[in-house]
Predict the structure of GIY-YIG nuclease family protein.
Amino acid sequence: MTTHPLSPVTPGSLSLPMAIPFRHRTFPPDDMPTRYAGPVHGHWWARAEEIGFTISGRVRDRYHLALRCETCGHVHASRIYTLMAATPQCPACLVARLEADAEAAGLMHLDRDPDHRHYSWYGAACGHALRRQHEIVRRVARGETELRCETCHAATEAAEAAARGWTLVGSDPQGNPSYRLYAHESGCGGEQRIARANMRTGRFDCATCGCGWAASPSYLYAMKFTLACGREVVKAGYSRDPLSRLIHQLRIDRAMPCRILSMVPIDTGHEAIRLEKSLHARLRRTHPDAIVDPDLYRGQIRVRSEIYDAKLTLLILTLLSDLDRDAPED
Ligand SMILES: [Zn+2]
Ligand SMILES: [Zn+2]
Ligand SMILES: [Zn+2]
């Protein structure tokens, strides 16, 4: 067994003994069937010619013929029954097609899966070997679907968790595809189901030791935006990092004028949520007319509510500065 240069960099589920691609095998000697003495009938010749083969002779036993492909010259043994009743395929031409499909999909065809005729092993650009259905690779080549290397993707998810001091243990034991099982590596070591999206943004707490997002400091903020129509609006909310929230999440068009008007530090995320909810409840109750129709900022600010007319700016700033002294009672 030879190891292909693209065979797995990482050991594990994807490590497989990689055979040399079919096209590069010498053929014969090993598979060359033994000659079988017997006549080659004229209707066999005619049928072979009709579908692009010539008959090199009878081989193996009384049921087999050696067929030479007129396209590539490859010789393979075929059952006479298959020749007459079906259309035998040249295995070398088939592999050539698989190699062309793979190349069009940005892959390298390594070898057919000996156990499943619709599957092959492919080398991906990242260096890992992927087992895929031939039709899927053709769909990738046509741009109808994308290919994801499981090994690389797992490494990405593991790195996301490591950046937050957690380790990725595995898939969600409850089977939710959005969740994973993680362990609090840098803390108590406890295991917990966490949505992958929350792991990326850090919006979760460790249920075992209690440390994390809800327990860490946060801010209430006010931001000002000038919409494309020229109208000025104000947004209030909470975030651990208001500037990052503004630049990377809320703002869609980089050219839109926007800025932070105020940031009030709050001890914990839990407290920030509570204060923010009470602030919005108060504004909705006292100034329902100042709530801006979401249709006006859809596609400009990535949020569905909590946007008010700029005439509330002073009131919001006053409420926020009051928070520095005491929380509003609502
Ligand atoms: Zn061929
Ligand atoms: Zn990979
Ligand atoms: Zn913990």
Summary: Residues 1-30 have pLDDT under 50 and may be disordered. The longest helix spans residues 269-286.
